[in-house]
Structure formats: C-alpha cells, structure tokens
Amino acid sequence: MANTSDTILTVENMSVEFPTLSGVTTAVRDVSFTVGREKIGIIGESGSGKSTTGRAIMRLQPPQAIVKANRMQFEDIDLLTASEEEMRSIRGRRIAMILQDPKYSLNPVMTVGEQISETVILHERATSQEARSRTLAMLERVNIRDPERVFDLYPHEVSGGMGQRIMISMMLIAQPSLIIADEPTSALDVTVRQQVLSILDDLVVERNIGLIFISHDLNLVRSFCDRVIIMYAGRVVETIAAADLDQAQHPYTRGLLNALPSLDHPKDRLEVLRRDPAWLEN
Ligand SMILES: Nc1ncnc2c1ncn2[C@@H]1O[C@H](COP(=O)(O)OP(=O)(O)OP(=O)(O)O)[C@@H](O)[C@H]1O
Known about the structure:
The protein is of the alpha/beta class. It contains 10 helices and 11 strands.
C-alpha cells in the first residue's frame, strides 16, 4: 500500500508579482506548503491570492508575472527550471486543473466523448477504439448513467453538474497525481455540488493522489478537505488540519470561523470580521 504521507508537491517561499501601470502588485508573498496524497484546501477572501497560487504551480500565470521561490518541486520535476516543453507534457497529464465553469473548459464544437478520447489518444497514443472504451468506462465511473448517449452530446447539451462530472472524467482519464480544482463547485446547486464532491473524494482516495481545492467557502473546505491553508492578502496565515480548525490560532482564521452562521448555535447577529494591519507584516 502506498504511503499516504508521500509528498507530491513542495512549494517554498513562493512570491508572485504583477508589474502594473501603477506599480508592482504582489499577489502572493512568501508562500510555503506541501501537498501529499490528501485533499488540501486553500481558502481566503477574493483577491487573497488563491488562484494565482494554483496557476503558478501549473506555470499558467500571464507572461508579465514574476514568480520567485526557493523551491517548487513536483515529484521529480523542478517547476522553477522545467522547460516550457516539459511543462506542456506535465499539464493535463501529471497535474490537472478543474475550473469553476466547465462551459469555458470544454470545446464547444467537439462532442463530450471526442474530447475525452482525444486526451487518451494524445497522451497515451491509444487507438480510437481503446480510447472510446476507456472514455465510456470513465463516464460511468463519474456516475453518468447513459455513457453511450452522453458520449455524443455537445457541451451546450449538458447540465452544469454533468458538465463538471465530464470535466472530472476528462482530467482523471490521464491519471494525474495532482489535481488543482479552483472553485469547482461554486456554480452548482447544493445537491449537485454534493454529488460532484463525493465523486472527486472517491477518486482521490481510490487513486491515492493529491488534490488542491481552492475555495472561499470555509464550511465546505472544513468538511471536504484533510488540511486547510488559510490565505490573507497573498500570505499564508495558517495551515491546519481541517479537524483542528476549531483550535485555529490566527485571529483572521478565528474571525472567519466566528463569522460563519451555525445551525447548532444560532446567533442574533453574525460577527463582522475586523482586520488588523499587523496581519500584513511578516
Ligand atoms: N494578471 C494580473 N495582473 C495584475 N494583478 C493581478 C493579475 N492576476 C491577479 N492579480 C492580483 O493578484 C491578487 C490575487 O488575485 P487572485 O485571483 O489570485 O485572488 P483569489 O484569492 O483567487 O480571488 P478570487 O476568490 O476572487 O478568485 C489580486 O489583488 C489581483 O488583483
């Protein structure tokens, strides 16, 4: 059995800067974390640097961005020095990304089946027949009941929840060891969200891979992830096991927890999160 504490990704002291007309914006400051065979959540408010962190790992930041780090190691690959060609062979095949809205990730003029099969043909040089049968099996694996029919649908013909399950099957058919999911369920309603999360959860465990789950929803991350990285203004303020969140030390994390509504302990008023300028200091 694989060791669940294997480290898949190590990020040490990563910063991402964007030169703009009004000066340099530092989107991510001195961020360090590791990802093992686990679900790790990155949470923080809008603009805290979550998506920039995810994109920097994939080296998908805009060309003007300046990424610095002491170390960015993905398995045997040094992400700081890997060539663009190496990165192209890693993206999709070894590190996959699932975004909020599958509509923008799926090609509108190819059927669902064609685009999933294409991944297998491209990465593994499978024959079209092999690719078709693997695609049908993968669609079935994400609980799509009638894979033969869905194979021939175009992206505009599928619902949001089915679209996200199709995205998951497309990402996972290439057998990546790390998935970066950026708000993958934010556009889904609550019941469909639960189905998609449970499929993702099963697949992460079954394949013993790592998942970085980016979200602004602390409750969701607390129940879904094993560990949580809390970001504020581009910095990691705290990294904590999801089960220990109630004992979080940082005042920002405490503030987020206090601002959550609770069914068990209803409050007349929700607390307003007060920010301390000291959180911006190292
Ligand atoms: N291409 C860019 N040029 C300039 N600044 C950028 C660029 N991309 C992101 N930023 C800035 O970097 C900071 C972090 O943005 P990022 O999108 O990573 O935050 P986020 O936590 O993912 O927010 P959200 O939850 O809204 O997606 C923001 O201040 C943003 O304005």
